[in-house]
Task: inverse folding
């Protein structure tokens, strides 16, 4: 009987320690000015396929050599809609030979609904991309939308954010500038 009590006590302490660790991690993620949970080490990103505004097939390999902020979103997702202007401003500020925001809509109604949304809110700097199959979120193992991955120049995931963020916030832009410079 005594041995069972000791094992139960250790199990209780282990569960409490794990719960405390999860709470501290969640608190840090919610209160950190930087949006990403960093990957322990760079990991491969599935070969996503999507289309551009002209209906041409595209993949993430088309952006190899750049640091990519991949955002998977949909017009029916309220947080997605709210963060889209900030993503547009981020692309306007940092987009270029070393960095690109790739926003991929998973609207299954087709490109017209997402393109209309882009026009309504005045998106000027983001290129239009759509995954009509809506497989992207599943391929990325995302439990919800929006999901955003930071991808290095070799096409590997180095950071992930589930949920909306203020992508054009000064601290986020500074962090991304540092990551882009380190990647060169």
Result:
């Amino acid at each position: 009987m005594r041995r069972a009590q000791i094992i139960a006590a250790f199990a209780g302490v282990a569960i409490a320690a794990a719960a405390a660790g999860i709470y501290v991690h969640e608190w840090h993620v919610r209160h950190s000015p930087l949006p990403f949970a960093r990957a322990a080490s760079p990991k491969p990103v599935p070969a996503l396929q999507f289309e551009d505004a002209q209906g041409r097939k595209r993949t993430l390999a088309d952006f190899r050599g750049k640091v990519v902020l991949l955002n998977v979103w949909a017009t029916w997702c309220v947080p997605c809609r709210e963060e889209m202007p900030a993503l547009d401003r981020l692309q306007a500020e940092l987009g270029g030979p070393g960095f690109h925001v790739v926003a991929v809509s998973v609207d299954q109604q087709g490109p017209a609904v997402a393109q209309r949304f882009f026009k309504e809110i005045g998106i000027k700097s983001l290129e239009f991309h759509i995954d009509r199959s809506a497989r992207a979120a599943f391929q990325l193992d995302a439990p919800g939308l929006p999901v955003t991955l930071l991808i290095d120049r070799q096409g590997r995931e180095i950071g992930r954010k589930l949920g909306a963020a203020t992508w054009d916030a000064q601290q986020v832009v500074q962090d991304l500038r540092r990551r882009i410079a380190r990647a060169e």
In short: The chain is about 40% helix and 25% strand. Strands lie at 37-44, 49-52, 57-59, 67-73, 99-105, 129-130, 147-151, 156-162. The longest strand covers residues 37-44. Residues 2-31 form the longest helix (30 residues).
